[in-house]
Amino acid sequence: MENLALIDSFSEFKDDKLIDRVTLMAILEDVFRNALKKKYGSDDNFDIIINPDKGDMEIWRNRVVVADGEVEDPNQEISLSEARRIEPDFEVGEDVSEEVKLIQLGRRAILALRQNLISKIHEHDNTNLYKQFKDLTGDIYTAEVHHVRPKAVILVDDEGNEIVLPKEKQIPSDFFRKGDNVRGIIESVELKGNKPMIIMSRTSELFLEKLFEQEIPEVFDGLITVKKVVRIPGEKAKVAVDSYDDRIDPVGACVGMKGSRIHGIVRELGNENIDVINYTTNTQLYISRALSPAKVSSIKIDEANNRAEVFLKLEEVSKAIGRGGHNIKLAGLLTGYELDVIREGTPAEDEDVELTEFSDEIEAWIIAEFAKIGLDTARSVLKQDVADLVRRTDLEEETILDVMRILKEEFED
């Protein structure tokens, strides 16, 4: 294969891969120099001239003329008689430049050279892809479902780049079909060998924060700041917002008239319940707001241990804890305090007993089921309707009746 024909075939890569001229020349020179090293042991004394636009290339080997019989390195030196066959007036000590045709490298070397070029171009593409998505880390990105696997959904963007949405990064209620458009944030870009793996997430707190930026103009413009986001994906989230302009109500602006602004975000997150609260540096007020919709009576803060005792009326306890304990868990994450719910004092005749006191007679998992819905004392359980408890817990009617019998006996005694 002649130099020109080989370069013509290499030039196809420039069009197919959209590689700029300078980059292609650098890749080509690197590939040719590797081939020369394998053939001659060194490429230090070779000049490579490439012009991909014209489709031509020249390789010149430079050697020093030495007397016949004194050649020690055939790659660096050439005998006087051999030099004079190139040009008759050469003398010892002069430099000789001789063009090397690719065919001289051998057919096998040329095939290896082409394979090496393909590999280098793929490596270049992967490096560019890695840099491109590394810069997009933390940004919202949209791609189309290519196929659905048990442990991940494989997405493809408009440029054909593959993006992975792992099962654990999906909202529990997410259900995707081939061709669906999916939004999430680019969470990370990992190199698997030489190939970048782009990971998308829909469960990250940052995804919710970026949705606020996209959907609420005042957040995008910086008039409202999202101070902190905590969430249990697909279930509940709390977002603390603040504004440096007293004329702006940050909560009202984020929620919108009748929830119009936040509705799109809620829908995107599989109907995740989002509480938006006003941020404040007043710790007691911040904790009180974080526990909404419950109304807090008072709060006792232990700064040294990052704990707070929250005093509530009996009817407010279940609201503070929330379904599955989500509300109090998120309030704790939002404020950075471990929150202990304390019921306000009750009259002596209404003395109560913690359910945990019955651990010898009632199994721990049953007590935990009651605690999930904010019932952790004997009287709080006894005041409930059995049918309602069956509906709100994972307990059977027979189990609930047995628990109530044990609790009633305590007070009868």
From TrEMBL:
Protein name: Transcription termination/antitermination protein NusA
Pfam families registered for this protein in UniProt: KH_NusA_1st (PF13184), KH_NusA_2nd (PF26594), NusA_N (PF08529)
Residue ranges annotated for the Transcription factor NusA first KH domain, each copy included: 202-279
Function: Participates in both transcription termination and antitermination.
Lineage: Bacteria, Pseudomonadati, Bacteroidota, Flavobacteriia, Flavobacteriales
Domain Transcription factor NusA N-terminal: start-end pairs: 6-125
Entry keyword set: Cytoplasm, RNA-binding, Transcription, Transcription antitermination, Transcription regulation, Transcription termination
Keyword RNA-binding in record: yes
Chief subcellular location: cytoplasm
